[in-house]
Amino acid sequence: MTEEEKQPEQEQKEVKSDRRSKLMGDMMKGLRDFGSAAMDKAEEYGKIASDKAEELTKLGKIKLDIHQLNRSRTKNLSELGELVFNLSEEKKLKDLAKHENFAALIKSIKALDIEIKQKEAHAETVEIEEIKEDKG
Hints:
Layout: H1 3-89, H2 100-135
Helix pairs in contact: 1-2
């Protein structure tokens, strides 16, 4: 084959090579764009998951507080019952209102009842907000 015959073949190879380079470049650009879009979506979903976890943690903390308040209330009721029982055994129930622990326990139980109701209302508010955010 002469030099003149080789030249068109070489030009064809160069054209094919240019096409391959362009195709490869386009594919690489497409992959970069896809990767970038995937990263943006992953970041968006990560933020949503983080927000949801924060809401659930907040609600869990409130419910734990309610549980602890209920335990304190139960303990106070138990102490009150024991006080009433002991005074009854000693036939001193008429002195119940005068007993120093009686008034303190009653006051404590009432305060705990109020605090429990407030926490329960707060938990309901957080749950309602969470439902609204999930729907919206």
